[in-house]
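Give me structure tokens for this 121-residue protein.
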Amino acid sequence: QVQVAESGGGLVQAGGSLRLSCAASGSIFRINAMGWYRAAPGKQRELVAGITSGGTTNYADSVKGRFTISRDNAKNTVDLQMNSLKPEDTAVYYCNANVQATFLSGFNYYWGQGTQVTVSS
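Here you go.
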């Protein structure tokens, strides 16, 4: 079984910064892509940033230049540094990992429980 756990959410004023961390643990042979998604009240979950095992990144247009995703392949972790936060960044942020549990298994997507980020104006 694979577990994904996020940490680092909280309340911050507009213009401030937060760093989210995520760790995947359990039966892991290899992790392909990892990413951060968010779900604002009344809105669908959307991709914020993703990163491949080789380090290629992609970002939602709304966060480009403000957020930075990074990962440590040896530790199975992925972080999201969020700067210049805006009230519209308020959402529950979810970590996602594309994991191959064993040498013989296929890849599956695993989600964390989510962490709340609230940006006050």
